[in-house]
Amino acid sequence: MWQGGDTPGEDLAVITFEHVAKSYPDGTRAVEDFSAEVPVGSTTVLVGSSGCGKTTLLRMVNRMVQPSSGRVLLDGRDVASQDPVTLRRGIGYVMQSGGLLPHRRVLDNIATVPLLEGVSKKDAHGRALELMDLVGLDRSMARRYPHQLSGGQQQRVGVARALAADPAVLLMDEPFAAVDPLVRRDLQQWLLGLQGELGKTVLFITHDIAEALLLGDQILILAPGAQVAQRGTGEEILAQPANDFVRDFVGLAAGERVLHPSGSGDRTVLLDAQGRAVGVLGEPGQHR
Predict the structure, then answer these.
(1) Could you tell me the strand order of the sheet in which 269-271 lies?
(2) How far apart are CA 133 and CA 127, in angstroms?
(3) pLDDT in tens, 81-123
(4) CA-CA-CA-CA dihedral for 67, 71, 76, 79, to nearest 10
(5) Per-residue pLDDT reduced to its tens digit, 35-58
(6) Residue 31 needs a FRET pair 20 to 30 A away by CA distance; which of 25, 135, 141, 184 works?
(7) pTM of this prediction?
(8) Could you give the domains of the chain?
């Protein structure tokens, strides 16, 4: 069975942004001066309001957007020096709409990049079936077309396709934004389990702070122009917000994430600012 082959993605791990900026001919400055590193095998989340530059940054990694200045490096190598087609085939990319080819069946959608890389149809389809197992899709769906799937199923196909060439780097641009809240929560938990198993270097884009807090090993809260308002773990950001912008963005200013203990009953219940029960305090040793 084919196991990924010699693809460009296998040697990529660390993503480094070095003082990148992006300006457009109309004078719009989408990114001011951004520097960051996405560590190996972890999930870094860029979170911010629409128009803050987060998707522009993500698309710099696979050269869908060219920075006006600065560099983006993959394991120390400037992406600008690499052939864009070869580069993109070696990086997993999942977008909000799934981006599936509507005229191709699920199996062929997943096998797209391996087939382009010259892998035999038999091996590419075998790998696609294995990935369907991995992302929780029944193999009976292999012959279906995208329009015959639910939104959540389409997103899983999109992730399977992104993983088909076994890339070390996975770019995810608001991949769960178009599905309903219950499906979104299920996909988030599924992604946590998948990342725990595969250990990819993930750059994840969202405008939802709750999603960022759940998924991010490292979180960068962006202000307009992709200016970093704060970076750190979710715990660090909630415990010590850097400024009023961060405090407001994460909901602390409005009391949305300020919880209070209630001593009633056998366990300590946590209440939100409106006095609504939102959870219970775990027993010692239950938290990670």
Answers:
(1) 260-262, 269-271, 277-280
(2) 10
(3) 999 999 999 899 998 877 899 999 999 999 999 999 899 999 9
(4) 30
(5) 999 999 999 999 999 899 999 999
(6) 184
(7) 0.87
(8) 8-91+167-256 (3.40.50.300), 258-288 (no CATH)
